[in-house]
Amino acid sequence: MKMRFDVLTLFPEMFESVKMSILGRAMKNELIELNLINFREFSTDKQKHVDDCPYGGGAGMVIKPEPVYAAYKSITDGLENKPKVIYLSPQGKVFNQQMARDLSKENHLILLCGHYEGIDQRLIDEIVDEE
User: How far is CA 20 from the centre of its chain?
Assistant: First the structure.
């Protein structure tokens, strides 16, 4: 069975180089599927903003939940099983060999890439399984 990766990011071009690596060979041999989704495309305002001031104040900017959630729903609507969602952040667990083994048993992963000061906590609480 082919393993599917959906990467939600503001910078999909950063992942284009994986097509020249071992992952590229896995894609060519149809062992994995990699979909790069720019959640900016799901912003509803004219300027395609995805950032906002943190709720309750504070320094920096956070990713708004609406465009990321819309991108997430574009992937999950119609699926029988919810894919595992991993939020990639400096505060999360350190990726190690055991985690790689565990995740290799999944058939569909959504990797959520943060930016700025992070992602609105309400979105993390709603869709993220692991950080």
Answer: 21
Do 44 and 50 contact (CB within 8 A), yes or no? no
The token duo for 59 is: 């320094």
Single-letter amino acid code for the residue at 38: N
Taking the C-alpha atoms of residue 47 and residue 62, their distance in angstroms, rounded to an integer, is: 17
What's the alpha-carbon Rg for the chain, to the nearest Å?
A: 15
Q: How many angstroms separate the most distant Cα atoms in the chain? A: 49
- Rounded Cα distance between 34 and 108, Å, is 10
**Among candidates 111, 87, 91, which has minimal Cα distance to 7?**
111
Give the containing element (helix H, strand E) for 74. Answer: helix 65-76
For residue range 63-116, what is the model confidence (pLDDT) as tens digits?
Answer: 999 999 999 999 999 999 999 999 999 889 999 999 999 999 999 999 999 887
